[in-house]
Design a protein that fits this description.
This protein is mainly α. The protein contains 12 helices and 2 strands; from the N terminus they run ααααααααααααββ. A hairpin with a 5-residue loop joins strand 1 and strand 2. The mean pLDDT is 82.
Length: 256
């Protein structure tokens, strides 16, 4: 026969836990010996291990009490259900671990591999890191909101950066970050960019330069993010509007 301390030790719990389970009616209290001490048999160890295992799995004590009184078939079905829930939690925790690991990986922060590859390509082409930051911070909410469209968007972006004229604008934008809002070079850049956008839209269609499916309010949020990171972008958009184009994330042709 076992003392309460020995029972607790064998089952891997504390004496306080044993007393708590007694109070909750999960573990029957044994009769005391002639010295007034509780004495437990092997069956109490088995029951206590079941209680501890179910409780550790997150099963509420009220449910534990029901399961201990259930028949073999009901108990087995309940355990299988608990196992499925734990497996789902493990998968979710693993996904969280992967997200946390990406936090320390620069561009990998919440970004799919296709986007990371695209940003690396921009670096290879000599694009200013500040412009890449604008791109990166824009992709994060886009990928979070519409992950299923990332392959489509990155494929289009790869086609765009394969055009030397498009990359020239990227390189110029890197220089423009340091320009004042009244710098005449922004006017020249807006002229060239408007001509390019018009040509590419005529050749490739409206979706080539702007995604019309992005909701206006979300596009405005993305624009604000870009303007905060690259202030001259706001002035450039104003100039483009005078030349028949509006928006940044969602570029659209308008009447100048």
């Amino acid at each position: 026969m076992l003392t309460i301390g020995e029972l607790a030790s064998y089952a891997g719990v504390t004496v306080r836990a044993v007393r708590h389970y007694h109070a909750k009616g999960l573990l029957p209290e044994p009769e005391r010996d002639h010295f007034g001490y509780r004495r437990y048999g092997a069956e109490a160890v088995v029951e206590l291990v079941k209680i501890r295992t179910l409780a550790d799995a997150g099963v509420p004590l009220a449910r534990v009490r029901e399961l201990l009184r259930a028949g073999e078939e009901e108990f087995a079905a309940a355990v299988a259900d608990i196992d499925r829930r734990l497996r789902a939690e493990i998968r979710e925790r693993q996904r969280n671990r992967e997200r946390i690991a990406r936090l320390a990986a620069g561009d990998n922060l919440a970004l799919p591999p296709e986007v990371v590859e695209l940003l690396d390509r921009l670096r290879e082409l000599g694009v200013d890191e500040r412009i890449i930051q604008v791109e990166r911070e824009g992709w994060i909410p886009l990928a979070a909101r519409s992950p299923e469209r990332v392959p489509e968007w990155t494929a289009r972006k790869r086609a765009q950066i394969a055009d030397p004229r498009f990359i020239e604008f990227y390189l110029t934008l890197g220089e423009a970050i340091d320009w004042a809002a009244d710098d005449h070079r922004l006017v020249e850049l807006a002229d060239k960019l408007a001509v390019y956008l018009t040509q590419m839209t005529d050749e490739q269609g409206a979706d080539y330069v702007g995604d019309t499916d992005i909701e206006p309010r979300f596009a405005e949020l993305m624009d604000t993010l870009a303007f905060d990171t690259a202030p001259p972008a706001r002035r450039l958009i104003e100039l483009l509007k005078e030349r028949g184009w509006t928006g940044w994330t969602k570029l659209e042709r308008v009447d100048p």
